[in-house]
Design brief:
The protein is of the alpha/beta class. The chain has a single domain, classed as TIM Barrel (Alpha-Beta Barrel), CATH 3.20.20.150. The chain has 14 helices and 16 strands. It is globular.
């Protein structure tokens, strides 16, 4: 039996194992952490990254998740420089977003290339626990057999991250719940064919709502699988039938019910993300998001 079939056929056992993953047990013992995905303030980070981080720290944020890694630099800083910036601000970065692309896979060598390996090493240097890919190329999900090969690459990346004391992860949008192959949603296929001991599925509760999926149902379906959660509320968009993110607690989702269920299932890292602002300034929205999470007991 190959590795992928073993994972699929042993899903229940692996789900239980994920609850006591030795790689993240020590991190979980530190208690719940809540932070901000810096994409929420992306324009501010482009204009003045240091000033933006200082302002977020003044609001009370101590945990960040990056969304900018270009030419082996974070927001233009080398890993050493960025770590110094965060250390000086008494901030930490346990998670980060960088898309794993087909260009990162060396088909001839059947291995991840040096560029991706350097990214993983830099993430470990930064103190990350999770290396998250926030999307998937359309060609990679074009047919079932191709997706199976991609999930083997995910597992391979998970093994690499595991060797550095981290987990590889994947962050959903809505298509993973809208699109199906062989009668199953992409999300179900991905959960069943990746190893939870090295691959963490970062559940974005707002993105999945757009597809009509309910976070409560998915969390219950895969107990112990979601340790790293993206906290995002949704309101109706300007176009009929559309949705957009908003300040936490002002939207349509039962936020505390979902987060409490995730927490009960082992989630210990909650990352705030907001991508639309309904006319308000992003930084002002982050103040309100902090207040909401604090009121709910997650800060």
């Amino acid at each position: 039996m190959n590795r992928r079939k073993f994972i699929k056929n042993s899903g229940g056992i692996l789900g239980v194992m994920a609850l006591s993953n030795p790689l993240i047990d020590s991190y979980k013992k530190k208690g719940i952490k809540t932070g901000i995905q810096l994409y929420s303030v992306r324009e501010d980070m482009k204009k003045d990254p240091l000033g933006t981080l200082k302002a977020l720290r003044k609001m009370g944020y101590k945990v960040v998740e990056h969304a900018n890694y270009v030419d082996h630099k974070f927001y233009g800083w080398t890993p050493k420089e960025f770590k110094t910036v965060l250390d000086d601000l008494d901030m930490e970065m346990p998670s980060g977003h960088t898309v794993l692309r087909s260009s990162h896979w060396d088909e001839k060598a059947k291995d991840l290339n040096d560029d991706w390996k350097k990214l993983v090493a830099n993430a470990a240097f930064m103190g990350q626990k999770y290396v998250i890919s926030p999307s998937m190329e359309k060609a990679w999900r074009s047919d079932y057999d191709t997706l199976m090969k991609v999930l083997d690459i995910f597992n391979k990346s998970g093994d690499l991250c595991k060797s550095h004391g981290m987990q590889f992860g994947y962050h959903n949008h809505e298509f993973e719940f809208n699109e199906k192959l062989n009668g199953e949603t992409l999300w179900d296929i991905m959960n069943k064919n990746t190893d939870p001991n090295s691959v963490s599925m970062q559940l974005d509760i707002g993105n999945m709502y757009i597809a009509g999926a309910k976070a409560k149902d998915i969390i219950a379906k895969y107990p112990g699988r979601y340790i790293n959660i993206h906290v995002k509320d949704q309101v109706a968009g300007q176009k009929e039938g559309s949705f957009e993110s908003c300040i936490l607690g002002e939207g349509l989702l039962p936020m505390t019910e979902i987060m409490d269920l995730a927490k009960k299932g082992g989630a210990n890292l909650f990352i705030i993300e907001q991508e639309a602002y309904q006319g308000k300034k992003p930084m002002d929205s982050m103040v309100e998001n902090f207040k909401s999470m604090k009121k709910w007991g997650y800060l």
